[in-house]
Amino acid sequence: MPEPVAAAPGVAGHTVLIAGATSPAGVAVAAALAGAGARVLAVGSNPEHLRRVLQVAPDASVYVCDLADFAQVTALAAAVHAEHGPIDGLVHLVGGWRGGGGLDGQTDEDWAFLHKRVIGTLRNTTRAFNADLLASLNGRLAIVSSVSVDAPTPGGANYASAKAAAETWTRAVGHGFAKAGDTAAAVIFAVRALDGLEPRLAAEVVALWDSPAPELNRTRRILTP
């Protein structure tokens, strides 16, 4: 089991799990973390797509898991702990868009999809790894949200509501971090569209380990091109 990482700037030597690692953002974050010396654990639901991560981070450990299934997530946590010990960072990149059609177009099916992917996977992963992040001297949680939370439209009401719920959950996790001693931080990155911002996001994620947790915790950072 890896020795605890001392509280010092930089992500090098820390173990970071990327939930939803097979997206373009996930691949970019994996590459940046690996390049900065972190141990990368990449999680996705499609084993073929996980090869994208290994192309940019050959030393990464990859795991196949349905993050919407809490039983699978707890099994994932057990496997990670057995192979790598506790993690120091969780980057949640599971998402998806459903919307359009005005308020009448906000279907139950779309809401179920968004609730499962945006909120359900975040709840599952943070609950499974919360103790790790609290125990780490440099625990970090990061999610990607949307600026639509600030100005929701009828056609995006389902999506904005799901993202707002994810932000609320993340702030709640951050509150727990603060009460436990301010060694961990929960950060929200908000974007209008992530396409094209993947390198910027990756750099911002790596930089989370360059600042003290109290400066970062429960902050919301808007990323623009």
In sequence order, what are the helices and strands, one letter per element? Answer: EHEHEHEHEHEHHE
- How would you characterize the largest beta sheet? 7 strands, parallel
Kindly give the count of domains: 1
Name of the level-1 CATH class: Alpha Beta
- The number of helical elements comes to 7
Mean model confidence by pLDDT: 95
The neighbouring-strand order within the major sheet is: 3-2-1-4-5-6-7
CATH architecture: 3-Layer(aba) Sandwich
Give the helix/strand class. Answer: alpha/beta
CATH topology type: Rossmann fold
What proportion strand? 15-25%
Cα gyration radius (Å): 17 Å
Would you report the number of β strands? Answer: 7
Which blocks of ≥5 consecutive residues have pLDDT under 50? 1-6
**CATH homologous superfamily caption:** NAD(P)-binding Rossmann-like Domain
Fraction in helix? 40-55%
* Shape assignment: globular
**Distance separating the two termini:** 40 Å
Please describe what this structure looks like.
The protein has helices at 24-35, 51-56, 70-84, 108-135, 157-179, 198-207, 213-216, and strands at 15-19, 39-44, 61-64, 89-92, 139-146, 184-191, 219-223. Helix 5 links the parallel strand 5 and strand 6. The protein is built from seven helices and seven strands, in the order E-H-E-H-E-H-E-H-E-H-E-H-H-E. It has one domain: Rossmann fold. It is globular and about 50 Å long. Strands 3-2-1-4-5-6-7 form a seven-stranded parallel sheet, with helices on both faces. By secondary structure, the chain is of the alpha/beta class. The longest helix has 28 residues, at 108-135. Residues 1-6 have low confidence and may be disordered. Helix 1 (24-35) crosses helix 6, helix 3 packs parallel to helix 4 and helix 4 (108-135) runs parallel beside helix 5. Helix content is 44%, strand content 18%.
